[in-house]
Amino acid sequence: MSIKKQDQVLVSGSLDVRGESCPYPELYTLDAIKQLESGQILEVIADCPQSFINVPESAEKHGHKVLNTVKNGSTSYFYIQVK
Amino acid sequence: MGSFLENIQERFFRGFWNPFMVLIFAGIFAAFYFGLTGTLWAVTGEFTRWGGNLLQLFGVDPSHWAYYKAIKLQGEPIDRTDGWLVIGMLFGGLLSALMSQNFKLKMPRQKRRWAWGFVGGLLAGFGTRLAMGCNLAAFFTGLPQFSLHSWLFIAGTALGTYLGVKLAVLPIFKGQPKVEFGLRPAKATSPNPNGHRKQLYIGAIVFVIIVLIAIYYFAIGKAMLGFAVLFGGAFGMLIQRGQLCFTSGLRDLWLTGRGTLAKAIIIGMAIQTVGTAIFIFKGAQPVIHWASLGSLIGGVMFGVGIVIAGGCETGWMYRLMEGQVQFISVGLGNVVGATILAYSWDHWGVFDALVKGSPEINLVSSLGWGGAIVCTGAFLFLLYLLVVWREKVYSKKMNQAHIPTSKKTTA
């Protein structure tokens, strides 16, 4: 994370929902998206396995774009571009 | 050994399994479990007995309470097939969580989750026993028995989850998300398999334990207990791998308009119906309960409870095995709620008020085979249509809501 890589994506907001169980990671994500501007990127850090399905599915259903998902052990990082 | 386990993980535990496949297998296994043991894939009856066993530990013997007479409080969990089924499910969920690296001990960020977990669990525990079954025995495995009580319970649960969703989005339940603003770099890929193999090894040990328990019971001639732990293990794996959360299946219909899981559940029930029909036709005794006002009210309580708690009776089991510690309070709530119902059954007149005099309606004996199958099929089809309709309504609403947001400036 500390090393600067090429074409690095910059996020505008980060939502840490580790420890939260569904449906809250999903609801919080949708709430957080509303706080960002169109085109900005939201980082969601989650560790509830159900949210690995719900968060990207719901974001896409609402028309946002899931740019990338990074899995680090049992924690996942989602990068969602607000539509 | 390590690379062998990694191969297995790579092949089967990399992503979640398709919910349709999981529910189809769950349906088939459930039908066979019924055919083999004559009992259902069910958990809350056993939770109620745990409550009874706990009371016995504290010197109170509830075995003369009417409810415990009805569900037979004998021995301890390890003497009962239902007991081993539940333990097997916990083991299976743990095995699956470990193999797929979904295991992580975590505490809820918001302390309120503990309290709401217990309250929701208590409501759900009370409701399910009032209805004589939870999302399994009065829903997923109940409907395929052609017992009308499950129709009432399903209707009640649909209404209850709808009400629950109205509550769950209130600030007192939801709490506030904290978004940290400010530019920062995103994480690139991270090949960081720390503690990776350890989880696999522990998973393998859990697998061996399940098999050894089963072998032991087969060897001493208690094959039913052996079957129970094996089927329990399989069910536990399926619910974890498919993230088979009935709460989410129903709640998300109302909350986020997602119907995939609900559809998969309906298809799993349809397949199971065919399976149980064959076993019943061949002479197995179907499990029929009172189709009472209690089934309907129980369904509503259950629906509200599971949404508040964030997990139904099967959901909390695999979540706990994933290391989500808060679900202890849901499980505890279930046991306490079920035990209160057992006490209130005769002591507070719940049976007389809500259940007494209600018939045990077996659709096969009331309508004949043709009628029972056509009606059950039609009911499932109707549920399916309801799900599709909900999805449509939601996406329509969402499209309308999104028109003004397009005015947002681009950053």
Automatic annotation (TrEMBL), chain A:
Record Pfam families = TusA
| Domain called UPF0033: residue spans | 15-39
Give the Gene3D superfamilies listed for this entry: TusA-like domain
Which domain of life does this protein belong to? Bacteria
What is stated as this protein's family in its record?
Belongs to the sulfur carrier protein TusA family.
> What is the name of the protein in this document?
SirA-like protein
Q: Which organism is it from?
A: Pullulanibacillus camelliae
Automatic annotation (TrEMBL), chain B:
| Subcellular location, record wording | Cell inner membrane
Q: What is its main location?
A: membrane
Keywords (A to Z) from UniProt: Cell inner membrane, Cell membrane, Membrane, Transmembrane, Transmembrane helix, Transport
Any stretches that span the bilayer, and where are they?
20-43, 83-103, 115-139, 151-173, 200-218, 224-240, 261-281, 287-312, 324-345, 365-389
Q: What is this protein called?
A: YeeE/YedE family protein
Q: Which InterPro entries match?
A: Sulf_transp_TsuA/YedE (IPR007272), YedE-like (IPR047732)
**Pfam entry (one):** Sulf_transp
Q: Which PANTHER family match?
A: INNER MEMBRANE PROTEIN YEDE, SULPHUR TRANSPORT DOMAIN-CONTAINING PROTEIN
Membrane topology term: Multi-pass membrane protein
Quote a single Gene Ontology cellular component term: plasma membrane
The UniProt similarity line reads: Belongs to the TsuA/YedE (TC 9.B.102) family.
